[in-house]
Structure of SD21168p:
Amino acid sequence: MISLAPLIILVLACLGNTASEKLPNILLILSDDQDVELRGMFPMEHTIEMLGFGGALFHNAYTPSPICCPARTSLLTGMYAHNHGTRNNSVSGGCYGPHWRRALEPRALPYILQQHGYNTFFGGKYLNQYWGAGDVPKGWNHFYGLHGNSRYYNYTLRENSGNVHYESTYLTDLLRDRAADFLRNATQSSEPFFAMVAPPAAHEPFTPAPRHEGVFSHIEALRTPSFNQVKQDKHWLVRAARRLPNETINTIDTYFQKRWETLLAVDELVVTLMGVLNDTQSLENTYIIYTSDNGYHVGQFAQPFDKRQPYETDINVPLLIRGPGIAPESHIDTAVSLVDLAPTILAWADIDTPSYMDGQSFHELLLNKRRRVPFFERSLLIEYWGEGTLATFNPECPWPEKDRLAQCTPAADCHCQDAWNNTYACLRNIRHREDRIYCEFRDNENFLEAYDLQLDPFQMTNIAYDLLPIERALYSLRLKNLTQCSGHSCFV
């Protein structure tokens, strides 16, 4: 008589392999304007514990453009801004403009995943110029998109087929509940899911949930060595700053406190969604990403409160990931960019990276079982186009309309934090024994800035004009190549 035991064992092994080969779920949580350099992750105690200590913590993650809409477009497309064409937060600057809707959205990450069988969900701030008209953006099965820019109350969401206005429901809490409901339903299906949740924190108007008001009222903004310092070796917009008066510093302290307080609700959101995944036995087959679109400064170099500058406060972003195959408490020093997220997510979904994507997957880095993952040399591109126009003139401030300045407000003592020619490209170079940034400004001076972050982590001393001519020429050539790169030619 032939024994069936080996056959049964073989069948069970095959079934086990099938179960283990089920495509993973993916949950991406994207905060707004959350820095790393000024301890922006301090309020995220549970997130750090569950994702950072429970997975991988990236120490050199960067936005490709320190402003919301270009950065979010890069995340969704895997492309640098010079290729996707979204240069600022306006429709004329490409933010949710015709080119995005016609050419980019059908090639973006959500649509690719949807076409490969993923059940997709979006909740929160999409792109700054999305106002809920027409059909739901391509790629989303379930869509709860905020009209316009971040806010916490008195907002409208496009909820699938219709627009719904909310007056007094705290947005982060609503997104938490919508996402939790989706996860409970999606985890009952055999389809994998991709869920993206984009709460408003820590973007202005910095409105914490009532339960969190005053939690950090005893805290003041971090007094870094660059705080309220006017440095003459910076590009003209920063060089022209005046020292901030006490009234503006008090405003900065208040904003700093409230930014942290808004993030407490995001930390709770992460806890809730992790709990749903655990309760539905889906946690171990789900990659969970936490990051932000860009950083933020508060008082550095006498710049009151904003992003848009090529300093670590504005370009360095949090990135924490846990999921299948990622060893707990992994620390990754290799430089990565938001443009790398789409290729990495596609690798998890067993989908080839399209040739038009400029980013590269760091999936293999995450599979290393050492706590300190081996370091790989990398150069990243940071690029920004100044937004100043005649329309950004503020009559409450003394500067003439013809100067085309922007972000000038009395709350900031009329310090203008952007201008028409605050345009630059930077090479962020992180290699063995080298941690530098080199920037070229497209202004009237063709100004240069460079910093050795190993020796000068607060970027107090511009060394661009002290570099050897050959060294400066090599940086410039590498930067030129990156600003013209596309696809695989961006891998340097």
Summary: The chain has a mean pLDDT of 93. The chain has two domains: 25-377, 384-489. The longest strand covers residues 424-431. The domain at 25-377 is CATH 3.40.720.10 (Alkaline Phosphatase, subunit A).
